[in-house]
TrEMBL record:
Matches recorded under PANTHER family: OS10G0509000 PROTEIN (PTHR48466:SF2), OS10G0509000 PROTEIN-RELATED (PTHR48466)
Coiled coil ranges: 117-171
Name of this protein: DNA mismatch repair proteins mutS family domain-containing protein
Pfam families in alphabetical order: MSSS, MutS_V
Alphabetical keyword list: ATP-binding, Coiled coil, DNA-binding, Nucleotide-binding
SMART domains according to UniProt: MUTSac (SM00534)
Source species of the chain: Davidia involucrata (Dove tree)
Keyword Coiled coil: yes
Domain DNA mismatch repair proteins mutS family residues, every copy: 266-282
GO annotation, biological process: mismatch repair
Amino acid sequence: IVEPLSAVPINDELQQARELVAKAEAEVLLKITEKMQVDLDGIENLFNCMIRLDVINARASYSLSFGGTCPDIFLPEADDGCLAAEALPGNKISMASYPTKRKWTLYLPKAYHPLLLQQHRQNMQKAKKDVSNAIADIRRRKLQGENMTQKEETDINLSFLEMQVTKLQQAYPVPVDIFVAQKTRVLVITGPNTGGKTICLKTVGLAAMMAKSGLHVLSSEPVKIPWFDFVFADIGDEQSLSQSLSTFSGHLKQISNILKHSTSQSLVLLDEVGAGTNPLEGAALGMSLLESFAETGALLTIATTHHGELKTLKYSNDAFENACTEFDEVNLKPTYRILWGIPGRSNAINIAERLGLPNIILVNARELYGAASAEINEVIIDMEKFKQNLHEHIHEAQHYLMLSRDLHENLLVTRRKVMQHGTDQRYRKMQEISEVAAMARSILHKKVRQLRASATLTSQPTIANKSQHTPAINSQNSPPDNIKLSVATKAKYSIDNIRQSPSEKRAKLPKVGDMVHVSSLNRKATVLKVEPSKEEMVVQAGNIKLKLKLADVIT
């Protein structure tokens, strides 16, 4: 570059000015630094507070933006819980709120992977923006009176862009449901490739980390997550040329490190456990690793696998639970939903068919697969059928138990009503008897008074004659006083006896050797035997032994 001579002085002045500005800036910065050194600790504390506030604000903004749920974080306990499959009858996705009566290690319904949700949101925003821009461009050209060519109309295909928006709305990410009972230590997830097993692992791990970080968990329902002290993950290919590690050895090194550092409060996520080597040896090693985690390892271990042998661990160890990703065998594509208590199949041949592999290869593969794995699949299917039948019988027994309890309660209520009705009837009858007896006594007394009054009004001889007959009349029409007393006393005792409660009756029962009054004999008697259940007693009046009802005697 050749600098003109006329520009040399100006450039020199410019360079000097730049040097002066740099020197002034350095002096200002030096003075500021000297002043900051006096209050350096306070400034650092203020700066750290600003960072913390900014992080808190970022957490709140993120949570509000995605609309998650504030998780219920708890310290795990050693109580037993319930099976997740029992909590989801029919393997339907739960629509209910958090069930407080159940005990869970992890309750994560309708959880979304944050990156999938963010990617979908960005795609939606871009598609809607394209539609808005297209509409604005069409309006602008119409206002300017421009005639668009066929190519320009094709470039601005509004209906196509709107269709893209509709497709994105229909392709909303599918949430996963993770329900792990408190006594479950290892969850084995099986299912087809591209079915969402790894996404499920990552969703659980991110949910645990988001909860610990103070973020809302991306779920539309209440969430319960334990406070995991560490979250360990072996996901992806760990091969390394620099360290001479293959895929299998890379996984083993990572798992060995997890075994060394995990505690009883840790979460361990293992993707494709036992993969990368001979299937038989890999399955045996995977079973041993998972059993080790179940006995002395982490609080919760979630592992994905294609090894059929790992699916059988649930049937020999209560600490294991099975789950699988659902596969639509009609449309030959995964649904990305989790089914609980059911071991899944890889469906690799079906997926290969969907991806366009030649039919002759698929037919041969199905023949080879059927010969190699029919036995283990039959065992699993038989176990699942047995389990399903067992659950059906249990539900049926519980149903009949509830019915029998209801019938028993109804029977007790009916019995009480019948007994009360009988008591009321006896009480009314005895009241009627008492009223009739009182009426009879009243009539007799009235008749006697009339006879006596009529006798005093006659002449003396007549009186004398009448007086001879009056005693006879009186004796014929007026019952003896002791008989009247006996009837009245017996009726009164019967009414009082009905009114008394069973406890009062038992308290007033005569004892052997007590003296009681026998109403029918109008005399005292000695109690020889008492039978409360029959409401009877045996008494002796002189030389006579009688078996009487309790209502026939007066204590």
